[in-house]
Amino acid sequence: MDDSGGVQMARALKHAALCLMLLPRFLLAAVMLWLLDFLCIRRKVLLKMGERQDSPDDPPVCVSDSNKMFTWESLRAVWHGQKLDFLKSAHLGEAAPNTEVVLVQERRQVRILDCTKGKRPLVLNFGSYFLVVYIEEAHPSDGWVSSDAPYQIPKHRCLEDRLRAAQLMLTEVPESKVVVDNMDNSSNAAYGAYFERLYIVMDERVVYQGGRGPEGYRISELKNWLEQYRKENGQVKVQT
Ligand SMILES: *[C@@H]1O[C@H](CO)[C@@H](O)[C@H](O)[C@H]1NC(C)=O
C-alpha cells in the first residue's frame, strides 16, 4: 500500500506545482475582472480595445454594462481556461491531437482528423465556422452568465444536450461542418480551447495556433495565413 501512497503524494505535489505556476496569471486575470466591474473602467478598457482592433474581420470584444465580471463562476471559468491552456497537447509545428468528436447531423463518432480533405488545410474553429468543434459552454446560463451570448444555453449534462445546442449553430452557419466534443471534453483539453480558439491543421500537424479567446481570437490572422498559403500553393481551394 506504500506504493499507492507514493503515487498519491506525487500526484498531489504535481497538482500543487501546477497551481503555483498558474497562480500569478490567474490573480492578474482576477484583478482585471474586478476592475472591469467599475463601469467607468470597463468603458475605457473596451474603448481602448476597440481602437487597437486593426481588422474589421475580428469580432469586437463587447460586454454589456449589466454583466458582472467578478463572480465565483467567472473566476472558476477563468481558472479552468488557463489550466486547459497550460496542459494542452496541441503545439505549433507538432502533431495535431486526434481527439474523438461526434458529427452533429449524422450523430456518428469520428476522429477530428477524419474531417481533413486530402492535403488541404483544415481550419478548426473552436467557437463558429469551417469545421466547428463545439465544446463545453464558457458562458452557460447556469454558470458565468453573459447576456451578450447569442443563446442562453445551460451546461451540457449529456451528449444529447450538447448535440441539441450545436444544432442551433448549424442553423446559423449551414454550410459548415459541425462536430461536438465528447463528454470527456477531450478536444477542449487537447487544444486548450475553452472560450474560443482557432487552429489550422495540415498533414496531421498544427500549422497555425491562434491565441486564447476572446481577446486572442483573430480571424484576420487566420485569413492572412490562408492567403499566404494560397499564394505559395497557387489556387488551391480551401474549404470555407
Ligand atoms: C465536460 O463539460 C461538461 C460541461 O459542458 C461538464 O459538465 C463535464 O463535467 C465535463 N467533463 C469532464 C470529464 O470534465
Summarize the structure in words.
The chain has 240 residues and is of the alpha/beta class. It has a single domain (2-233), classed as 3-Layer(aba) Sandwich (Glutaredoxin), CATH 3.40.30. It is built from six helices and seven strands. The chain has helices at 2-36, 39-52, 72-87, 159-172, 186-191, 219-233; strands at 100-103, 108-111, 122-126, 131-134, 178-181, 197-202, 205-209. A seven-stranded mixed beta sheet has the order 2-1-5-4-3-6-7. Helix 1 crosses helix 3 (72-87). The radius of gyration is 19 Å and the shape is globular. It starts with a helix and ends in a 7-residue tail after the last helix. The model is unreliable at 236-240 (pLDDT under 50). Bound molecules: 2-acetamido-2-deoxy-beta-D-glucopyranose (NAG). The site of 2-acetamido-2-deoxy-beta-D-glucopyranose has 7 residues, from loops. Residues 136-137, 155-156, 183-185 line the site of 2-acetamido-2-deoxy-beta-D-glucopyranose. Pfam families: T4_deiodinase (PF00837). Keywords: Membrane, Oxidoreductase, Selenocysteine, Thyroid hormones biosynthesis, Transmembrane, Transmembrane helix. The chain crosses the membrane at residues 15-39. InterPro entries: Iodothyronine_deiodinase. Belongs to the iodothyronine deiodinase family.
